[in-house]
Amino acid sequence: MRPHPGIPEIPTVTVTTIDSPLGPLLAVADDDAIRALEFVKPATAVGQLEAMQAALGATLERAAHPLLERLRSQLAEYFDGTRRTFDVPLRFTGTPFQERVWNRLLTIPYGEVRSYLDLARELGDPKVVRAVGGANGSNPISILVPCHRVIGADGSIVGYGGGLERKVWLLALERGERRLF
């Protein structure tokens, strides 16, 4: 059926669940890129899917998708400790400032950390440290866009949408430590 003239077509994106040592992840892709990756929050999973759908302005559909299968494979290698970088294409949906922060996160090397203040300075304005924290916290593509590599200025492990215990685990993995969750 063809869309009615003047009524915009709502795009469809594909969603799947990917198992990980830290619990299931929701992964979303369109035809060209990964759009979201976040830990499932079982108590609010339906609301989580609705929020993803609203943020992406798209209808979610469960189906096989080659990018999601590639992502599944790369995440398995990452969690096994044999992959340090990802090469799946990413597409952000955020404000220009958020996207600047998320792109900056992509430059933090595997196994290294930066503080929110470091990132604000790298963006050219140490006064935007709180805004950097907000953008970091709203990162829609966890692990691939390594917001877990951002710590407090004093070196403390702070703030992670997936939970601090997951952040600690991910940082330990990247230091070469094997930890049980």
Describe the structure.
- The protein has 181 residues and is an alpha/beta fold.
- It has 2 domains: 12-80, Double Stranded RNA Binding Domain (2-Layer Sandwich), CATH 3.30.160; 96-174, Arc Repressor Mutant, subunit A (Orthogonal Bundle).
- 35% of the residues lie in helices and 14% in strands.
- The chain contains 6 helices and 6 strands, in the order βββαβααβααβα.
- Strands 3-2-1-4 form a 4-stranded mixed sheet. A two-stranded parallel sheet has the order 5-6.
Which descriptors would you attach to this protein?
single chain, 181 residues, alpha/beta, Double Stranded RNA Binding Domain, Arc Repressor Mutant, subunit A, 2 domains, 4-stranded mixed sheet, two-stranded parallel sheet, 6 helices, 35% helix
Task: Describe how the helices and strands are arranged.
Layout: E1 12-18, E2 25-29, E3 34-39, H1 45-56, E4 59-62, H2 66-80, H3 96-105, E5 114-115, H4 116-122, H5 129-137, E6 150-151, H6 164-174
Parallel strand pairs: 1-4, 5-6
Antiparallel strand pairs: 1-2, 2-3
